Write the structure tokens for this entry.
Amino acid sequence: MQRFYLLFIAIFTLVSTHAQEANYDENLVPDFVLPPLFQVGNEKTTVDYWESERRPQLFEMLENEMFGTGPSDLQTSFILNKVERVFEGKALRKEVTLQISKGGKTHDIGLLIYLPSDKSSAPLFLGLNFYGNHTIHSDPGISIHHSWVANKEEFEIHANRATEESRGVRVHRWPVEMILEAGYGLATIYYGDIDPDFDDGFENGVHALVDEEDKVNTTSLATWAWGMSRALDYFEQDPSIDGEKVIAIGHSRLGKAALWAGASDQRFAMVVSNDSGCGGAALSRRRFGETVARINTVFPHWFSPNFKKYNDKEEDLPFDQHTLAAMIAPRPLYIASADEDQWADPKGEFLSGYYASEVYELYDLTGMATDEQPAINTPNIEGKIGYHIRTGGHDLTQYDWEQFIAFADKHLKE
């Protein structure tokens, strides 16, 4: 017990020190040079070169050095549990179990889907949620999950289990009716159903089915992204969903997961990153707000063990987050920030999109349609990389969703 206590104090002290040292002054951002998206001196900057050579090289680098891997040898089957008309017949609610199996063992992941009832095959936003599918809406028909969940007094969550008291507590982040009225479906999974968000040595969630020797470069972020792809597998065989127009969306750490899902699985038609910050859209070399060392210390299970080599050594990274943004090309990418969320480095998030635009140009597309960070509450959606910074803090708001929908309307319906 004393050894555990001393370890806790050491980690707490290190985390507190990094938090206190966080830089929020643009004048203190170090000079940096971003690694090139194309090899220096290589004139073969063509779409074929990017798709057949350079993109695979960069993807492998991101996977090995940062994001790690999710499961690769598990089987998925689908169980349609419930289909009901809701919201006075304007929508369908479906609950599907993604049953993951290996060697006679199974693990269930709950997928909640809302679809507009007046569309035969709807485009759809897919995002993971933090506390349970039942928290995104007060709809009493949504099942409550049985997976581990972080305790939260605000939501009356105790003993790491969700209860009826937490139904609808995140409704402000998921304007279901507005999304449906815009002609889109919405699907969500509680991210802890895929992999619980604590450093347990990858023994729970889907990892309970994975052989120990296959966990060498396992990470939670890669596994959450893997779970999003398994949901996409289902969407492709459901005729009420347009499987070619599925949008991966995520907020905060789940914005990191959405970006990696879009990079790993090019079936996603569009990707949305909301306040994803360090390890997401924000450039690491800026060392503004949260840093590589801080994120690896507090959340050691999120990224590859190799990523820890770059703690306080961001300049040694063989890539930066503009590389991750470039993995989405030529598909539409939206990056969103908030002016009070300096921890996530809004300017660094914008710059990743700006510098990733070089790859979009290979496809004769405009990436970021501006070279200056837009003013607050002035979205720029003209290019294939959209961006806004809104007033407020670290959150996912109706304003954000309004911009995401407008961007999807422009780039998926044009």
About this structure: Confidence is low (pLDDT under 50) at residues 1-19.
